[in-house]
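just leaving the lab so this will be short. what follows is a protein written twice so to speak, once as letters and once as structure tokens for the fold. can you read through it and tell me how you think this chain folds. thanks a lot i owe you, the record is right below.

___
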Amino acid sequence: MNIRLLLLPLFACLVPAAGGTWATPVPVPEARTPHASVALVAEQVTAARGMTTWVGLRFRLQPRWHIYWQDPGDSGCPPSIARELPGGVGAGDIRWPTPKRLPVGPLTNFGHTGEVTLAVPISVPAAFAAGELRLLARALAGLRGSVHSRIGDARAPAAGVGRPPPRPGAGRRLFAEARARWPAVAAPAGWRLSAARHNSGVSLRLETPSAVVIDAASFFPFDEELMDAAAEQTLQRQGQAQVLELRAAAVPVAPWTRLAGVLVVQAAGAGSGGPGQSFVVELPLAAAVTARSSPALSAGQAPAGVERASPAGRSKPGSIQT
């Protein structure tokens, strides 16, 4: 017997921009503020026992407004999800799309604009015996624009049971778009990456096949408050390689011992307005006086869902809590 996923209306509380109070939860198709809306979506109508299905939060943001990535940059907090699941049913971490650099005055945030889906895998055990599967999710997300606002405490149960085999739901297109925006788990074949510390920060060295010429690059760290988010990231050629310079935070919260995050590169001729190519980077940091003395190290695979360290006093980015 397969489980049919039926997403019922959200129960939402919205927080106004300033000076407001929490509203009484009421059932609505999606949670809204004047600047954004969020709805719970599913990739498939059904989910087979012993398999994984995907659900997610679909954000629609007005121009000049954004939500935060797992490392928000200079300010803000990323969306978090608290969930209640039946025994044996599991939920994985949020799969984060590739972020953008979003200047806000003298600060720089890392986040997402427009329409974006934050996807979460839900695994149903083969031995799940109940005739009904009920999921309850509560989401809290901060928005940033000309003023701060919050959209939060969005609740959505999903229940039902059915015999049809798993089939694509109305959210199939949304999740295909979401997967296209996930960073690859490793650098492209033939690329060699290395990283080294120096007095003002970190140098990331990129050695690519001769046919690949990089016009621009941006790095988004998993570890918060180690890198100066607002500092310009300069890309310079050194011999056959290119080096991206990353400035350390003025007051880092911990020693910078690894370079872990997402690298976005723009190849020559691709156009500055394109999305670029993104992949996960996780490298040890060699101690060096200058970036030129750092040894070359191959980029290892790092699954995008792996847990990352969070600075003391701040919640884990993209947390999914019970």
Observations:
- Confidence is low (pLDDT under 50) at residues 4-28, 146-167, 289-322.
